[in-house]
Design a protein that fits this description.
By secondary structure, this protein is of the alpha+beta class. The protein is built from 31 helices and 35 strands. Strand 21 (570-574), helix 20 and strand 22 form a beta-alpha-beta unit. The longest helix is centred in the N-terminal third of the chain and has 18 residues, at 259-276.
């Protein structure tokens, strides 16, 4: 059946600000759905309050409403657009589903004649209400863990008494495992039960008998209105049950499952999906399997929507789940749709992988002082990376190289943990760094049987680790001069980086690189084609690997490199890697716009990134996608292969920027602002010289490399003093200290965590107002695109402040100083592209805090508020295609726009929630007000100093 011809206009509900448990994977899903609906001539109306995402860009939907996600906003939109026929709520995570249910209960959809497509309300209610779900599963013959529902504290205590410990508590109608916990000891039960009941909106928890050591799997399904069902991807959690899938290391396809059990699990998933409701779209099903030879299967849960895992599965297989799910919601059948990668086969097929993917979460515990760092049923990670390789070992190494936590891979980088007790502790209570700790344990000589007994991780995975350690031992016996070709090739095939091999050999990374070139061990690029090369793929989506040479019968040596280099002029955009606090989805927005602008200028566009949640890593965003770590060795090989005109680094946050020095050193052209200018802005001494020359005021400061130097400086600067390390993002390690004891303690702690770092000590301007400006500069002309005033005082990180556009309380004299200083600094730094300058204002004097000649967190917010494509303009300036004077800047904003930070403190109940110079927010929303008399503005302003801390 072709699409439902009655559907002409569809409302899509987005997922709102990014929080732990619901991140930019829904931006990716929603963007795909919008593009998919537009292909069919459907008018799209979007509601989403997140200004940082590409999804809320005016180019994505016909009508974008940056409004709070509540029923009041829905009614406003439905009155504005009486033509809306249907709502698609499955692309915006739990937030969208919950809002859809609330609107249904209030009769809003019925009042406006709006149909719900892609899912039905009964399916949502059955899957979210754990008691109803359990009863349905038992009715249809799907095994479940022994469990019971509690809607009161007393009932929960009775269940615990009956089951005994350990237990699992899961709260109903929550996201990211909120309120869920693994309870080992009776004395912990009361607090965790109370928390689960409080967190659940219906005050209900399901208490399960814990299945210690059982393995966890996920299946991603799609189903059409004709009841065709396809399994897109099987995903295995390396960690056993007890750790939230969002915090687990996951592997696709499933590695340790017998075919017989996989087929049984597949049949159960299809049976479950067909019984929860009559709908067409995507579904995620989670199972637990006993670790013995019986491989008993029980169902954990089912989500009748695209999920975090479906973004991962889409990137892992090349099958665009959200795009197809949107088509199915329109009424199409799978056999009527094309495979988007091959263009020659139908969407009614199950992808086959001839490679392995490994996803590793990215945590930010350092931002939540005092937080419990062990992993459990409540998700704590803020982002994730994905590695693609020909083997599990290669993919695992590539994923660890993508994390950006100063590790070069699994081991062989001099950073291993050598403390036996600490290793045992971290294995016993799953830690964020357990992926590295397993390797350290093997290196220390702890037997695999002991590691398996403690962690319950399948022996197959542990043996893979052991093999890696064996090859490290073998290589370490050699020197770079006598290293055997086969041994070096094997190490590269297993994913070891040149840096790691250099560490084993005691030589330089460049020497290993030269050795590889001498021995002709070079990367080759393979297509992600969904069908294990059975059909020719039309979409250039690549990963790298190393292959043994193939010698034909004619004696010709062949290396199968599937990435063909064109004769077109091309540019590479470096992505921003995994999401983390301080560097989030706003840089993905910038990268996508950079790619689109370069394409408009006639360039072939090449994207390098390793984040599976983002639009920049969608297979059809750039002309070519390399799903690779944003890690020097990988990037350099791609550049040598593609020979681009240059590389854009200023759109990918600190990740891309950190590579600017090496690119320059290797003679690779940086498009836009040069490395020298970027470095000048980071080097506080040189930057302050620039400010002195131009008579621009800045807080008195000094540079210290030891605690003694810091104490000497303190006498000169006067307290309070702001202490911060060099070259960090999101205010990492920044703190305001008010006496010498605090100063010594913080400096010692920073130098322990960041050895060799230069520390900057500024006199803190107490009571100052903070403001910031973003601008585009072409080296000669400067256009300020936005000046924002922070509602919170100076001292709260700009990412955690409510920022108001335009400024609401700065006089003409101050605004003129901001404009003059911004223009002077942009020109002095020889900026070509974007620049962000931050200011502290005291007694009508504007002081410079810092300048960043790159895309900033606030650029998407300003672009959305003023309805202007600023990143498009800036990219064309970087490419030298346009001057600033070539654009017609026409900002449109009635009243004010406020960037409001959103925090995920609820995931860490015991942490200090006060705000200071180190950024803690995970996302943001945008609020439009007509004037300063608005109650919401008044409320924010009255509370502006409440959370300020040192």
């Amino acid at each position: 059946m072709p699409k439902n011809q009655n559907l002409k206009s569809i409302l899509i509900i987005g997922s709102g600000p990014i929080v732990i448990g619901q991140a930019c994977e829904f931006d990716y899903s929603g963007t795909q759905a919008l593009r998919s609906l537009r292909e069919d001539g459907i008018e799209t109306v979007l509601i989403n309050s997140n200004p940082a995402t590409i999804m809320t860009d005016p180019s994505m939907a016909d009508h974008v409403y940056l409004l709070p996600l509540n029923t009041k906003s829905l009614i406003q939109i439905l009155k504005d657009h009486p033509q809306i026929d249907a709502v698609l709520p499955t692309m915006g995570g739990q937030t969208a589903l919950n809002l859809c249910i609330e609107a249904d209960e209030k009769g809003i959809w019925k009042d406006f004649g709006v149909e719900i497509i892609g899912v039905n309300i009964d399916a949502i209610n059955i899957t979210e209400d754990r008691e109803k779900f359990r009863n349905l599963m038992l009715d249809i013959g799907i095994p479940m863990a022994p469990q019971a529902t509690a809607t009161s504290f007393l009932k929960g205590k009775e269940i615990a008494q009956e089951f005994g410990f350990p237990l699992i508590i899961r709260a109903s109608f929550t996201l990211g495992g909120e309120g869920a916990s693994f309870v080992y000891k009776e004395e912990d039960f009361d607090d965790l039960l109370t928390r689960g009941l409080e967190v659940s909106p219906i005050h209900e928890v399901m208490i399960d008998k814990a299945l210690i050591g059982w393995k966890e799997y996920e299946l991603e399904l799609l189903r059409d209105a004709n009841d065709n069902v396809v399994i897109i991807c099987s995903i295995e959690n390396m960690d056993p049950i007890g750790i939230h899938t969002g915090d687990s290391i996951t592997v696709a396809p499933a590695m340790t499952l017998s075919d017989k059990t996989f087929q049984k699990m597949r049949d159960m998933a299809i049976h479950m999906m067909r019984n929860i409701g009559d709908f067409a779209g995507g579904c995620n099903v989670q199972f637990a399997i006993s670790p013995d030879e019986k491989e008993d299967i029980i169902a954990i849960e089912i989500n009748p929507r695209v999920s975090r895992s479906s973004a991962l599965a889409s990137k892992a297989t090349g099958y665009p789940i959200a795009k197809i799910a949107a088509k199915l919601a329109l009424g199409y059948h799978l056999d009527e749709l094309d495979n988007q990668i091959t263009k020659s086969t139908s969407a009614l097929f199950e992808p086959t992988l001839d490679y392995v993917i490994v996803k590793i979460p990215r945590w930010n515990f350092d931002k939540f002082e005092g937080s419990d760092r062990t992993l459990g049923l409540q998700m704590k990670s803020v982002g994730e990376v994905m590695g693609i390789g020909r083997s599990f070992q290669e993919a695992l190494h590539k994923a660890t190289q993508s994390l950006e936590i100063k590790r070069n891979g699994l081991g062989a980088d001099g950073k291993e943990n050598k403390n036996y007790d600490e290793i045992i502790e971290k294995l016993t209570y799953a830690s964020w760094d357990r992926v590295f700790i397993i390797y350290d344990a093997i290196k220390m000589g702890i037997p695999l049987s002991k590691i398996h007994e403690i962690t319950q991780i399948d022996m197959w995975f542990l043996k893979q680790y052991e093999e890696l350690h064996e090859i490290e031992k073998e290589i370490s016996k050699n020197t770079v001069a006598n290293l055997d070709r086969d041994l070096l090739l094997e190490a590269k095939q297993k994913g070891y980086g040149d840096r790691q091999i250099a560490h084993m050999l005691g030589c330089l990374e460049s020497e290993v690189y030269s050795k590889r070139e001498e021995l002709n061990i070079n990367r080759v690029y393979k297509l992600v084609d969904t069908c294990a090369a059975e059909f020719k793929a039309k979409t250039p989506y690549y990963y790298s690997t190393f292959e043994s040479d193939i010698v034909t019968k004619e004696g010709v040596t062949v290396i199968a490199n599937e990435s063909e280099v064109t004769a077109k002029k091309k540019i590479i955009v470096l992505g921003s890697g995994p999401n983390r606090i301080g560097q989030g989805i706003e840089f993905d927005y910038c990268c996508v716009h950079g790619i689109l602008a370069a394409a408009e200028c006639g360039y072939e566009t090449i994207m390098i990134n390793c984040n599976p949640e983002t639009v920049s890593t969608d297979f059809d965003t750039a002309d070519k996608l390399y799903f690779e770590p944003v890690f020097w060795e990988h990037i350099y090989d791609i550049i040598k292969h593609e020979k681009p005109e240059g590389v854009i680094v200023q759109l990918g946050g600190q990740t891309a920027l950190k590579l600017a020095e090496k690119l320059t050193k290797y003679g690779i052209k940086i498009l836009g602002t040069s490395f020298e200018a970027l470095d000048l802005a980071e080097d506080r001494g040189s930057f302050s010289d620039l400010l002195v020359r131009n008579k621009i005021p800045f807080p008195e400061f000094g540079i210290a490399e030891t605690a003694d130097e810091a104490l000497v400086l303190a006498d000169k600067l006067d307290f309070p003093i702001l202490v911060r390390p060099s070259y960090v993002l999101g205010g990492q390690g920044m703190k305001i200290v008010i006496n010498k004891e605090e100063l010594i303690e913080h400096v010692v702690d920073l130098l322990r965590r960041m050895p060799g770092n230069k520390l900057l000590l500024d006199h803190y301007l107490d009571g100052a107002i903070e403001a910031e400006a973003d601008a585009i500069c072409d080296g000669e002309n400067v256009q300020i695109i936005g000046i924002m005033e922070h509602i919170e005082p100076c001292g709260v990180h700009s990412g955690d402040s409510n920022a108001t556009l335009p400024a609401f309380n700065l006089g003409d004299l101050v605004i003129q100083q901001i404009k003059d200083h911004t223009k002077t600094i942009a020109l002095e730094l020889k900026t070509v592209g974007l620049i962000n300058v931050q200011f502290a204002i005291k007694d009508d004097i504007v002081y410079i805090i810092e300048a960043n000649p790159r895309a900033s967190r606030t650029v998407p917010f300003i672009a959305k508020a003023y309805k202007q494509p600023y990143v498009n303009y800036a990219t064309k300036v970087m490419l030298g295609e346009k001057k600033v004077t070539d654009f017609d800047f026409n900002p449109q904003l009635d009243g004010y726009a406020i960037k409001q930070p959103v925090f995920s403190f609820n995931k860490f109940p015991n942490v200090n929630k006060q705000l200071g110079p180190e950024m803690k927010s995970t996302g943001e929303s945008i609020l439009f007000i007509d004037d300063l008399k608005d109650d919401q503005f008044y409320d924010l302003y009255s509370r502006r100093k409440m959370y300020l801390t040192k």
